[in-house]
Amino acid sequence: MNVTIIQDNFRYHYRLHIPGDVPVDRFLEAKEFSDPVFTEDFVYRLRVPLGYWEWLLSRISAIKVDPWTSAEECISELLIQGILKLYPVKHLDR
């Protein structure tokens, strides 16, 4: 379930960078996240396979996850902290 290119509901594409992955092109600029409400809404709009966020959280198991928090909330927090990064991939957008 290794999805690294993710599309949102508006058909914009992003490359997900996970700690330990191959570095991304140095010319790409990561999307900045700071607002928890916006970030969580953004994560909910991303099109990923069922169970993808849970799989991703298990892959980066060094990060403690609150069992009462949804996977989407955890991913949102990791994006805000800069542990996970999303890079816009504009040449795939139509």
Structure description:
The chain is about 30% helix and about 15% strand. By secondary structure, the protein is α+β, with helices and mostly antiparallel strands. A hairpin with a 4-residue loop joins strand 1 (about 5-10) and strand 2 (about 15). Helix 1 crosses helix 3 (about 70-80). The longest helix has 11 residues, at about 70-80.
Please summarize what this structure is.
The protein has helices at residues 36-45, 52-59, 71-81; strands spanning 5-8, 13-17, 46-47, 85-88. With 94 residues, the protein is α+β, with helices and mostly antiparallel strands.
Structural class given helices, strands, pairing? alpha+beta
What value does the Rg take, in angstroms?
13 Å
The secondary-structure element order is: EEHEHHE
- Strand % is 15-25%
Distance between the termini: 25 Å
Helix proportion:
25-40%
- Extract low-pLDDT stretches: none
What strand order characterises the main sheet?
3-1-2-4
The mean pLDDT is 86
DSSP, total strands: 4
Task: Give me the secondary-structure topology.
Layout: E1 5-8, E2 13-17, H1 36-45, E3 46-47, H2 52-59, H3 71-81, E4 85-88
Antiparallel strand pairs: 1-2, 1-3, 2-4
Helix pairs in contact: 1-3
